[in-house]
Amino acid sequence: MSTTRYLYMYIAMGQKDREERQRHWFLVIAPNNSFNCTFYHATPIDSGYKHTIQIGQSLLDPRIAYINHIGTIPASEQKIVYDLTRSVMPQRCHCYIVSLLDALNLRGLIDPYQQEIFEAEVPPSMFWHARDMGLEAETAAGTLIDAARFVREELGVDSVSYCACFFDT
After folding, report:
1. In the chain, what are the domain boundaries?
2. Does the global pTM surpass 0.90?
3. Which superkingdom is the protein from (predicted)?
4. Nearest residue to 64 via CA among 15, 10, 121, 8
5. Where does 111-164 show beta strands of DSSP type E?
6. pLDDT tens digits along 26-68
7. Own/partner pairs for 55-63, CB < 8 Å, 24+ apart?
């Protein structure tokens, strides 16, 4: 009988309260036969993005709308995944996850098609929507930076509940 512990890896997508909003994407790692998990994601800060790790979370977290299994690894390889989450440049959550999936694929931890599937689903940022609507780049960027700051600071909404990444370029 094998005593090897395994960890399941998922890409989770957060809830959204309005149709026009985008879902926040993040990596979730959970032991087999457990709802206890850890969230790994990139979250916006005033000067760009930072790596965020949330330990002691739940797969049943009501902020999660969808969860997609991307692979299973021996628990002994968790440090490799952790190191990869830190090695990928923090950026807009959708792009961060696609880059992380590429890194996981290069290490042989997931199937190559996983990265391709999620890459095809990356939504455009609001910056490009604003540019498509005719706003000059400087005006679009300034307006969206102010809007993202308002959501984070004034409304106090966390990035899993409200994907502020879509404001950024």
Report:
1. 6-122
2. no
3. Eukaryota
4. 15
5. none
6. 999 999 889 999 999 998 887 778 999 999 999 999 999 999 9
7. 57/28, 59/10, 59/28, 59/30, 59/35, 60/35, 61/160, 62/15, 63/14, 63/15, 63/158, 63/160, 63/161
